[in-house]
Amino acid sequence: MSDAFADKTRSTNIRLAGFGGQGIVMAGYVLGHAGILDGGNALQTQSYGSESRGGACKSDVIISEGEILDLVPPGLDVLVAMSQPALDKYLPNLKEDGILVYDSDLVKPGDCTIRALGLPATDIAEKTFGREVVANVIMVGCMAGLTGVASRNSLRAAISESVPPKTVDMNLAAFEEGFNRGAKQGRNAREDKE
Amino acid sequence: MREYKHKLLGYLRREILPTTHCPGCGCGQVLNAFVNAIDDLEIDPKNIISVTGIGCSSWIPSPYLKCDTLHTTHGRAVAFATGVKVIRPQANVVVIAGDGDLAGIGGNHLIHAARRNVGLAVFLVNNYIYGMTGGQVSPTTPFGAVTTTTPYSNAEYPLNIAEVVAAAGANYVARWTTYHIRKLIAAMKEVLQKKGFSFIEIVSQCPVSYGRRVGLRDGVAFMEYFKKSSVGVGTAENMSEEELEGKIVVGKLVERHRIEFTESLRRINESCQKRASGE
Amino acid sequence: METARARQYLSGLSGKMRFALGDEAAAYGALVGGCIFFAGYPITPASEVAETMAQELPHVDGYFVQFEDEIGSIAAVIGAARAGAKAMTATSGPGFSLMMENIGYAIMTETPCVVVDVQRSGPSTGQATKPAQGDILQARWGTHGDHEMIALAPNSVQECFDLMIACFDLSERYRHPVIFLMDGEIGHLRERLTFPNLADVHLFPRGGFDPADESGLIKPVREYGKGEAIHITGSTHKEDGMRDVVSQDVHESLITRFYAKIDRNRKNIIRYEERFMEDAETVVVCFGAASRAALGAVKRARNEGRKVGYFRLITIWPFCQEKLAGIGRRINKILVPEMNLGQLAREVERFVSVPVVRVSKIGGVPHSVEEVYAAIVRETS
Ligand SMILES: Cc1ncc(C[n+]2csc(CCOP(=O)(O)OP(=O)(O)O)c2C)c(N)n1
Questions:
Q1: ipTM exceeds 0.90
Q2: Which of A111, C86, C144, C307 could cross-link C281 (Cys pair, CB 3.0–4.6 Å)?
Q3: CATH assignment of the domain containing C82
Q4: Tell me, what CATH number does B144's domain have?
């Protein structure tokens, strides 16, 4: 029997959630696309209310080195929350050692014991880039910088392909902003451990 | 075997004649008018694809007319024909079917094909009844008529299907009866040359399943009735709704010059391909 | 890939990789498979197939038409197919139900065409946006009368593409409508799609002769426009196409030929995937979305030393009954996880004498690995 029985390879389950119109689905797409550009496997699903703006919206991404077989994974390794209802609803799904990344303009996490990183993405998007809509790539950047689930280059490539040509530079700049903040926190956390 | 001799017999599958239509039926007249029209226009039957539904009227071309034929399901001929026309835009795609088929079960396809203005020649043979299934009420049966499913009286008003098709956007709409055979041939010729959705309601007779219940016992009685009841569109314009009660308005109801659907599709393809190749 | 322009356009995809939806992958499979006509009516979760075709068909000299309903859509598809095009439609349960009469017409007139059914939760409007696998028997028996059926089911985005090409191939080879039984889960998830080198994709041409045909009963498609006055009808007809709706022998020989042309080619049509079968004592039989969790669970059970095998149907119809009967003689028990209340299990039961345990799940959420694993543990302890 040549088949390996078990997938010992690691797999990361990420949920991005917020309101319709925030670019949650696009963020999930970019993350998953970057996952396959990195040479691994990725799977993305999404669900949203019937209204395209304002309703609840979530996008799940699984990134794995092995075959992805569990379409409904048991717990989240990472939750990216861009609205309070999203946080309240999905925080219980986060694993004990999971990581929460949230938009601190829109979400108040209260006291939770989970590792969490807040970032005023909507505020940065508006003040630095003059466009609220890039908050999603700031969040993706931050989460990726912090966790390393997808490489910076692949994310840049995926973003460049997904946004309107005229907005590529702005989106990449927003992504870098998020990525650097996340990476810095990641380094700090690792140094703390050491 | 009987020997048939007629200059137009070449258009028919003569080996299977006579037709299965009942004596006095209008279907033979419609077939006659159609082969006269294609003969006058010198259309090569090789270029005709006839698409029909289910019903006696659908048996006019299927299988008697010697051309490529798609005998389809009840009510769907116009939709099948749309697929045919998109792929074979050069062919004369002709639909012949009954009032139950085209105006009843297939009414929505008819309306939307007219709206799309797809280049079909559609001949709706309106015999006021579901002939093949034995005389049930149809969407064109007159108010008050007795049929097998309105044994006391028809409680519904008939659909003016030609007006509906005209309103839906067809490029050409006319109504004639089997009594007006020369006018019908002339109109069929117009239709066969017209681009876009072209439609003739051919008021016809079913002495067996309809006529005998309304006092019109044979083909001749129907011819007299059609002659007496018909008024031209011009005359009808100056008549009130009450005066038009029970009349058959004949003539051309609409003629437009909108672009034909499959031609639109081809133009879209061209411009799309040009843009993609950066021309 | 009908015209030179189409070939050129599509060859630009060779070797490319996309993070694609199952629906999109199916549409690209159709384009590569030579489809140049699509007619359809919007419905979740199949609309993305239509949208992708609407976007791409003009580039390959093809045509997209949104119809007034699904009955008109399948009618136009068959019309276009008779006029010479490889043609398809895509829908979900409610629309699939509406198409049934004309699917029978395609069988009766031996018209090649492909119908995608991205299955969703029913009956009726059910959970309109949620996936299910409840149409497998409708695909088989939805149209009236005696007939065979060909239906394939993918379990990944890559397979949506690969098997779609196969659907067109089978449809042309056997002159039969082919149902592509996707499900809302696979149709609506994104994964890696890698386009093959398109020069390596060989298509069965319209009207072609199939040297692999083992029935000797399949005649090439006769084409319109050649002055042959071809008569095509959904009514019972003689071999020359002329209606004969009363003779018992004409109907019997026509229908038995339709049966035989599929039945005698079963081994050319039937595909499946088996893993861990050699020493298996229990086998998980599955298809489509549910097969993902099934494989995950089987691997986990194997890892713990449980003798569990995995058997996935890729061709749903014709049914792989000989294969399953053979498996049934070697093992003790079969588990069938599926997103319906036992449609596949019921079919499996007809061909094996070991217990067939249903691991059904309905309600629009696919099985998790944990759920199927728990069933394996329960049934093998
Ligand atoms: C789906 C379906 N429903 C019902 C029938 C039965 N049917 C066959 S012909 C017909 C009526 C035909 O009437 P019409 O179109 O007016 O044609 P006519 O026979 O009067 O010329 C009906 C209801 C059918 N063939 N298919």
A1: yes
A2: C307
A3: 3.40.50.970
A4: 3.40.50.970
